[in-house]
Amino acid sequence: MDVMERLKLLVSDVLEVEPEAVGDDAGRETLPEWDSLAHLRIVGAVEEEFGVKLTMQEIGEMNSLAAIGRLVDKHRA
Amino acid sequence: MDNRIDLTGTGFAALRDELRATDLSTLDGPGYRAVNRRLRALPGPAGVRIAFLGNVTLDLLPPFVAAHCARAGWLARSHVGGIGQEMQDLMSPALEEFLPDVVVLVLSPRLLRPDAMAGFTALSDEGRRALRDDLLDHVEQWVSLATARTRATLVVANFPMPAVPALGVADTAATYGETEFHLELNLELLRRMRAHRRVQLLDIDRIAATVGRARAFDARLFHLAKMDWATPLMAAAGEAIARHVVAAKGAARKCLALDLDNTLWGGVVGEEGPEGVLVGQGDGTSEAFLAFQQRIRTLKQRGILLALCSKNNPADVEEVFARRAEMPLRLEDFSATAIGWGPKHEGLRSIAEQLNIGVDSLVFIDDNPAEIALIRELLPEVEAVQLPDDPSRFVATLDALVSFEKAIVLPDDAGKAEQYVQAAARNRWSASAADFQEYLTGLKTVVTLRPASVADLPRVAQLCAKTNQFNVSGRRYGLGELEAMMGSPRHDIGCVSVSDRFGDLGLVGVFILAEGEASLHVDTVLMSCRAMGRGVETAMMNGIKSRLRARAAAALTADFIPTAKNHPAAGYFRDQGLVEDGGGEGGAIRYAVSRDAAQPLPCPWLSVVEDPAWT
Lengths: 77, 615
Fold this sequence. Notes:
The structure holds 2 protein chains of 2 kinds.
Chain A lengths: L2 H13 L20 H15 L5 H6 L3 H12 L1
Helix pairs in contact in A: 1-2, 1-4
Chain B lengths: L11 H9 L8 H13 L6 E7 L7 H10 L4 E8 L2 H6 L1 H6 L3 E5 L2 H4 L1 H5 L6 H25 L3 E5 L20 H17 L4 E4 L1 H8 L1 H4 L2 H7 L5 H18 L6 E4 L10 H4 L11 H18 L3 E7 L2 H10 L10 E7 L3 H12 L6 E5 L2 H10 L4 E4 L7 H6 L11 H4 L1 H17 L3 H8 L1 E7 L5 H10 L3 E2 L7 H8 L4 E10 L2 E13 L4 E8 L8 H16 L3 E6 L11 H4 L3 E2 L8 E6 L11 E5 L5
Parallel strand pairs in B: 1-2, 1-3, 3-4, 4-5, 6-7, 6-9, 7-8, 9-10, 11-19, 15-16
Antiparallel strand pairs in B: 11-13, 12-15, 13-14, 14-15, 16-18, 17-18
Helix pairs in contact in B: 1-3, 2-3, 3-13, 8-9, 10-13
């Protein structure tokens, strides 16, 4: 499974929304469940799932699935 | 161990049993999320209501606590206060409505006194001591307010030592450096909190050290979100808080039943012989079994009964205990035994019967996975614990159990096993007594009735939590509620102590009376099962009737509230001369008797001592 598919499943699991509700363009803007506490949960889940350690600045910037996908690719490159 | 969580099972008991077979330290994020989704979907009332207050972000902690509580048998519901609102939250209607059983307090000194903590190295010794007292005073002020505003057990976290002091190695050479400051801060906190009976200290400093300070804290999340504890620390704190819940609820299991071969000693006695089994000084394996036996002995001092459940020839077992004097555990340490060739679920049932406790009060430890699987299948109420292969890990396996946690070890606890041995002597003697009346008279039982004092309340709370059979209401009062009743002139809390020619049974019975406008109401009558069957309950009701006269109430009323286990008390009020009057709400059966008709019943085989202040 590619990174984006895994991220969709992860975000839907953390936010407890249907997987279909998490599209390619999903982010803090499109998902009302993605509040600041959910953001902390997503950070922990992404780090565990992909075995990466994000910087404080990256945590502040990862506001969409696409942005998280780019960060994961960068850390795993 | 298997760390997959089956999502097909429904109901709390199914989830609890799955968790019991799971090592939660191996559970990953998706696993925790799945457990919590199932817990939240469960209907029914919470077993424990936990509020989390403090000056850091605690919102991500409750799921970890809930998973560990579920494993320990408690469905937890939580409430998280606002950041830095720990005082205001205590005054809030939201917390009052939530009605917590447990309130956890977590404070970060860095956020509580930011300037002083950041400028610590610039402070004089005097300034540092003042800072220490200032922090402690803040905690104590919170404790006083929380004690007044809630009836909850208060679980107060101490302060984690910083990973590296600002002055480096020179810190301990300086007078009152960071190290000394933090050691004394936590030591003073421990001492101050010990003076508050309703407070338990959450030793998060020790837990952080166990997790590893580098993994326990996350500077990114602290700066971004005032979240001090990283996931590994929250997971470990979840287990620790579940321990405090078991202690606060007085829900410790009562008995540890143990296998023998490859559990208490290495090897099989039937093959190696009593001299051949491994335990004692000499080689590593023998010393590991010795250390395990020593650790088990400390449980006995905690008031946990020990029992043996083993497939062996009884004569072989007796020979090991007789010939291996280096073993710290002696045969007399075990209050009940089931040694033979029958299946172990029957052995455990027999042990529960011998001790007159429920099988749900048992923990069973065995090295054989087949035996553990059998017990989990046939007696799921028993907590069955699989030993690891390596005996050097046995002590850690025992220490990982949360089921034996108590808020305080009372003087009564160390003598508990002796009391059960006395009970066995009584039973033997009872068989030889020609007539039961003669037996009762020969016991020379002395019953003492007196009002509860503040010092009795921990034991009273323990009895409320643990007494299932002879308990007319099943009400579980915690310390806070008992304190409130002691302070109320409308309430009487009566304590009943029993001794006989075989020894002292201690405080075994409690009654709670509430005076209303028309009558004196019996709110609670309960008695430990070890005092049952000798008429102590009659002496107790006679004491209640004399309170009725002393308070000059017109009538006595009482409710029997049936529970799953209290049928031994079902006929109590009727037997004591009260009459069912058709009242009672929500399944309760109401009894009443007028003051004139409430005459004491004779119990000539007892010597009853009533506190003169009460008659």
